[in-house]
Amino acid sequence: MCYNYYSNELPSSIGNLVHLRFLSVKDSVIRRFSSCVANLMCMQTLDLHAKVRMTVSNMFKNMKQLRHLYLPWNHRVSGEKLSLATLCNLQTLVNLYSEDSDLNDVELSNLTKLYIVAPKGSKHLEKLDEMLKSRSITFNHLRSLYLLEDHSGGDIIVLRFPFISKLRLFGLTRLPEELLRYPNLVKIKLYNTYLEEDQIEVLEKLPELRVLHLEFGCLKELKEWTMEEGAMPRLCRLNIDHCQGLRALPDGLQYSTTLKELVLKQMPIELCSRLDEEGEDFYKIKHVPSVIITERQFIWELNHGM
């Protein structure tokens, strides 16, 4: 069942649908849920991605069949912290706010996707790290981790998830070199980071990395990027979005024979001009089958060999 209409609250009668397994209010303007939603004990997928700020209560603990829980990006918790310890079948947990949730619950053994949000100044990530370390918890099934935190310290948490294949990080100041020991890491997205060139070298050494996204002010301190021949030997997609400090693409990109798609969005005009077919840096990308460069007023699409 999907709700996408202009009402602030779901009808209380929804609590009578005791066999309901799927409920989505994605893109609606619903601001709160009736307490009767707690009666939906057969629920397996609950998507609360509304357009507006939502008030969420501790209504999930009886949904023991729940597999996928998408909390709103912008929400507040009414009453006690969210308790998810009874959800032993949970596989997807998105937008878990560290300050509003009992982080002991993230030891749920079946999780495959976890998104944690830790506000600036929060000490909850440190507490989470201590808990994971003391209990020797291993997330054997976790494959996708998204960590949004506005301060240093999140790099330590990443090391508690050794089996991940997809990693999204926001606000970090360093990448731990221990990532090189992660055999399954194939996709990384970095947002609003402060990495310098020596940190980029960690990415270049990842042997299985296939997709790299650098977005929204990523690499704020980086003006020059040096890439050695043979770096990121399996890279097939590179997306760089709004990294205004970067003056040019690395020369070593010309040796990336596995690269199939390059997307540049909202990048400096000088950098983009150098990549034109008449530009001095065109040789770096001419081997890439699909190149898309977007600026504020126009889009360049270069599909070489097509």
TrEMBL record:
Keywords: Repeat
Protein name: Putative leucine-rich repeat domain, L domain-containing protein
InterPro entries, per database record: LRR_dom_sf, LRR_R13L4/SHOC2-like
Coiled-coil positions: none
Any Pfam family the entry gives: LRR_14
Domain Disease resistance R13L4/SHOC-2-like LRR: 12-241
